[in-house]
Amino acid sequence: MEDWRYWARADQLPPQPETWRNWLILGGRGAGKTRAGAEWLHAKALGLWGKPAKRLAIVAPTFAEARLVMIEGQSGLLNLDGDLLRPEFEPSKRLLTWPNGSVAQVFSAEEPDGLRGPQFEAVWCDEIAKWKHAEEAWNMMQFALRLGQNPQCVATTTPRPIPLLKRLLIDPSSVTTKATTFHNEKNLAQSFIKEVLQRYGGTRLGRQELNGEMIEDDPDALFKRGIIEKWRMKAAPEMKRIVVAVDPPAGFGQKNNACGIVCVGLAEDGRCYVLEDATMKQARPGQWAKRVVNLYHAWKADRVVAEVNQGGAMVEQVLREVDPSLSFRGVHATRGKSARAEPVAALYEQGRVSHVGAFAALEDEMCSVIGQGSTSPDRLDALVWAISDLVLRKRPEPRVRSL
What we know:
Structural class: alpha/beta
Number of domains: 2
Shape: globular
Number of strands: 14
Largest sheet: 8 strands, mixed
Strand content: 15-25%
CATH topology of the largest domain: Rossmann fold
CATH superfamily of the largest domain: P-loop containing nucleotide triphosphate hydrolases
CATH class of the largest domain: Alpha Beta
Strand order of the largest sheet: 3-4-5-2-6-7-1-8
CATH architecture of the largest domain: 3-Layer(aba) Sandwich
């Protein structure tokens, strides 16, 4: 067995002295954050660097991401050591058990109340900047981190300017290490490095996703994080109308745009509530159509609204092949993206739109320069179509329905 401490980078090792409670590992995509978090928790469980921690936890944005990234991923807990030291994973129990008897429970930040009751000596949290209920999940985790002489948490994330992360960066009980994608260049495909440098080098998105920088609002953006945060809610009221909006891609492939899919509801109070961002990347028409229809039924939506500039009648046809009975309306973009988004941005400024939970990728698009850069704001386009359909066009008064 190789000792991780002898070949890890300095930013991947626990800061000394270990008097901290929270260790933030901030970095770009592929910077080695996951490996650092996994090695730390693994060492804690086995007592490789001190006394073993018998009760541990891992917390991810979702259960699926916990399994695919933190546990079974290439840098996950099941791929660190040989069979003799590898933990056993029981997906049905959401439990990892090491050979020495140490156990780690698996939690989703989507369900903060799941952290009520259990208690731990060590916790590894991943991508806290994209947690849907960041403050609530973090607080519940901190209450549970109460065993042993020095209970500790490691949080690995690509930074986004959310209130939780800003607070932790100045918390005296927290320490921070940082790394860029390029610190781990020798372990990444050179074609990937070349592509991301060409596409995103020098851009705000590149500074965030590659350099791991905390990027605040773009002064030229129509949407402001402070306004989104001010009106954010944990739960939605009763809806009187719900739509699923789609901004379909022009084709399929790695370089094609994502398919923007956003669900928004209109309540009796006249305000819009963003309920879900189900955007898909590199999806074929049949794949994104199935997701749209599933979302339509899951939220008991009244209509699917889709931009048809690219595909024309094909967009409706693809959706009706999945569900012939869905209510559909095609919309045509006659103005630029920025012009279409301005009335929606005004609704945000008036406090007439709330996000139910956090939607990190969508909010990143909203708070970037609109209509510029090498990628299209697909999520934002879908959001604009949804809110426009609910608020900015006249229609007969719909029935009231509980979620």
